[in-house]
Amino acid sequence: MAGDVKKVVLAYSGGLDTSVILKWLETAYGAEVVTFTADLGQGEELEPARAKAEMLGVKEIFIEDLREEFVRDFVFPMFRANALYEGLYLLGTSIARPLIAKRQIEIARAVGADAVAHGATGKGNDQVRFELSYYALNPEIRVVAPWREWDLAGRAELIAFAEKHQIPIAKDKRGEAPFSVDANLLHISAEGKALEDPAEEAGEFVYSRTVRPEDAPDTPAYVEVDFEGGDPVAVDGETLSPAALLTRLNELGGAHGVGRLDLVEGRFVGMKSRGIYETPGGTLLIAAHRGIESITLDRGAMHLKDELMPRYAELIYNGFWFSPEREMLQAAIDHSQAHVTGRVRLKLYKGSVTVVGRTSPKSLYSLEHVTFEEDSVYDQRDAQGFIRLNALRLRLLHRQKG
What we know:
The chain is built from twelve helices and 14 strands. It is α/β, with parallel strands linked by helices and 402 residues long.
């Protein structure tokens, strides 16, 4: 093991786990470590990560604001598909991993590193997502996954290792955390430990981005979202950048308790796990997107999209963002979005979001065709032959059974 890695780019948060990994890479491999910390909108101050890396002797430190790229090139393409894993999960953690992996590979190339490393455990999905992305972008890269290699079995061993190597540990990090958290601009998730029993309702202390729906305002709020070519571009008439737009929707949804999800999901590695997710802006966004598609997409295109969506969502969840099949599906989805342009009005009230209005210059909705009043464009007698032709095979089948 030692000696076969000379320089490694580590996905580094500055927390206990990745700080221990940093020092372990130096001691176990004798490798020079380059740290990379991505700002994906997790809401944490990142400069302490730089200070800690410097204190630990790291010479090359990368801290990058990737919020706009994250929303523009990863979140928005995914939302064009209305992607939901197992019918419910908006894939907040899943969609962040390929971007982190992409930048790690780019940094490794720039600094001449021969390896990359991550802090994902051997039980979860993230190890798969990171490593499939690494290999898709650089088939020759060496990947180090410490949790699958070292003999540090738990938190006590991590703390002992940190103390031995003089790695500072914040007082509030010495105790066992009640659950693990992952956050970015799209969502925040909580899982493990206190949340592992799926029969027990999660306590209110778990939630941080949404008010308790019962405590949300007693008066509904109305929000308008403008779309161009399938992507949101404005909120309440104000044009915003992708990251700023999602931030605004997070604030609006969170204030009304929108976007909570308690889910037991099937991990790619085989087990089921329970997670608590908060995705306020994403919940507003998917409702609005489906609302504008309802008047701008042809029925055949919309139904085919809905058939493709579970496969597309599964690819993202399982870590295949950089696969040819995801790119093929993306091309079909993006082609469908050419006329998905217009404005959607949402009503937010105590944890719910409802589409209450939609307009578009590309609308396929024709009032003169659907009205219950007298019209001159639709001959109702035409329906008789339409029904008889569609019933023909059913009538023949009945005769066969008789």
